[in-house]
Design brief:
Blueprint: H1 2-11, H2 22-40, H3 56-59, E1 63-68, E2 81-82, E3 85-87, E4 94-96, E5 101-104, E6 107-112, E7 122-124, E8 126-128, E9 134-135, E10 138-145, E11 152-160, E12 168-173, E13 181-189, E14 192-199, E15 207-213, E16 218-222, E17 225-230, E18 238-246, E19 262-273
Length: 274
């Protein structure tokens, strides 16, 4: 015990009777702050610096306004609404459920299953940016692959923020039984539309779909190649919708050849504006 007290006494700092000036106190404080900063910057705990996102579009003068790479193990609630609603208009047979939408290993999945829900024979998934991200004009780029099969109807499209049915811009859509046919459609109102059918492009494989929407023109791309141009342009703020419908008057109902479960997969969504 005596040695322990002696050790503490030997390590103690003697108290000086000399008053400390303001300048000395500032020097002491600054030195302490420097030491604190050095601790924060210790090599074993590197500072995390967020690097601004850049790609060929930002280098060309586009400003990134929305981005989701789906790197999290859950869907971002600040980016997406997960729909929970039934839909029987036009002969549709599915109910959208949030649990049909997942994010895993950098991929968003909208899964369709033949497990009934209430009076609906099929379940499906749908996400929108309504109320979260809406804009007029810009560049919309999505890398995705679609499910194929009779009665499945995957789509990536834009709808107006005021809940009206028109205008509507279908960036890309596909009838599941015709995976080598991809549609671009620009609707102004019922009966007023411009469209283009891309043949010999397999939508069940990965492709990058891009819409360049300006005041004068809509330009559609698949894998950076221009596939369609039209002056049938909308002039209102719109939100992005991605979904898979099941059944209906155009696509028809699933049959014994349709495989379940089946999924629409999305690698990323990036939206820009100038």
């Amino acid at each position: 015990m005596i040695l322990f007290i002696f050790f503490l006494a030997g390590c103690s700092v003697p108290i000086s009777d000399t008053p400390v000036t303001i300048e000395e106190e500032q020097v002491h404080t600054e030195k302490a702050q420097e030491e604190e900063v050095e601790i924060i910057k210790h090599p074993t705990e590197p500072a995390i610096v967020e690097v601004p996102y850049e790609d060929q579009h930002t280098e060309a003068g586009w400003k990134l306004t929305f981005r989701d790479e789906f790197d999290l193990d859950q869907v971002s609630s600040s980016n997406w609404n997960l729909l929970n609603s039934g839909y029987k208009d036009h002969g549709r047979l599915h109910h959208y459920l949030p649990e049909q939408v997942t994010s895993d290993s950098g991929v968003l999945k909208l899964e369709v299953s033949d497990t009934p829900y209430q009076s609906y024979p099929y379940r499906s998934g749908a996400v929108t940016t309504q109320g979260l991200h809406e804009q007029m004009y810009g560049k919309f780029e999505i890398r995705a692959k679609f499910p194929k099969g009779q009665g499945l109807f995957p789509a990536i499209w834009l709808l107006p923020t005021d809940h009206s049915s028109y205008p509507e811009i279908d960036i890309v859509e596909m009838l599941g039984q015709l995976p080598n046919e991809l549609w671009h459609v620009a609707h102004q109102k019922e009966g007023n539309r411009a469209f283009h059918l891309n043949e010999h492009i397999n939508g069940s494989e990965w492709h990058t779909y891009t819409l360049n929407w300006s005041q004068d023109e809509l330009i559609f791309y698949i894998d950076d190649e221009v596939t369609f141009r039209t002056s049938n342009v909308s002039h209102t703020e719109m939100y992005l919708l991605m979904n898979v419908t099941v059944g209906g008057t155009w696509v028809g109902d699933p049959d014994s050849s349709t495989e379940f479960p089946s999924s629409m997969e999305v690698d990323y969504v990036r939206i820009y504006q100038k």
